[in-house]
Specification:
about 140 residues, 5 helices, globular, LOG_fam, Cytokinin riboside 5'-monophosphate phosphoribohydrolase, cytokinin biosynthesis, LOG, EC 3.2.2.n1
C-alpha cells in the first residue's frame, strides 16, 4: 500500500486491480489522463470503452502536454476513418494542451455518442453507480 503525505484523502483497501478501477470510476465525476505509460493507457482505454458501451457518460479528458497524445489521437482518428470506431464515439475523448483548457472542456462536456450496447446492468451494478454526467463545481 502506498501512502504519502497527509493530503491523500480516503484510503480504501481493495482486493484487486479491477475492484480498484471500479471504485475509482464509481466515485469520479470525470476521468483525466496525464502523460504516462502502459498503465495509464490501459486505464484510459478501459474508461473510454465503458463510455462506448454505455456503462457511464462521464467525460474522458487527455491533458495533451506538448502534444504527448497527438499520435494516440491520430490513431483513433484513423480508426474512425476505417470504420472501427464510430464518428460519434470519437467525441468520448476531449483533449487540451493545458489543465485550464481541459477543465473548461470537461465542464462543458455533453455526451454526443450512442453506446454500442444498452446499459449493461451487470457492469453498472458491479461499478455501483447509475450513469449521469455532472462535474462537481
Amino acid at each position: 500500500m502506498q501512502i504519502t503525505g497527509e493530503t491523500v484523502g480516503e484510503v480504501k483497501a481493495v482486493a484487486d486491480m479491477h475492484q480498484r478501477k471500479a471504485e475509482m470510476a464509481r466515485h469520479s465525476d470525470a476521468f483525466i489522463a496525464l502523460p504516462g505509460g502502459y498503465g495509464t493507457l490501459e486505464e484510459l482505454l478501459e474508461v473510454i470503452t465503458w463510455a462506448q458501451l454505455g456503462i457511464h457518460d462521464k467525460p474522458v479528458g487527455l491533458l495533451n502536454v506538448d502534444g504527448y497524445y497527438n499520435s494516440l489521437l491520430s490513431f483513433i482518428d484513423k480508426a474512425v476513418e476505417e470504420d472501427f470506431i464510430s464518428p460519434s464515439a470519437r467525441h468520448i475523448i476531449v483533449s487540451a494542451p493545458t489543465a485550464r483548457e481541459l477543465m473548461k472542456k470537461l465542464e462543458e462536456y455533453f455526451p454526443r455518442h450512442e453506446g454500442v450496447a444498452s446499459k449493461l446492468s451487470w457492469e453498472t451494478e458491479q461499478l455501483g453507480y447509475t450513469p449521469k454526467c455532472e462535474l462537481s463545481r
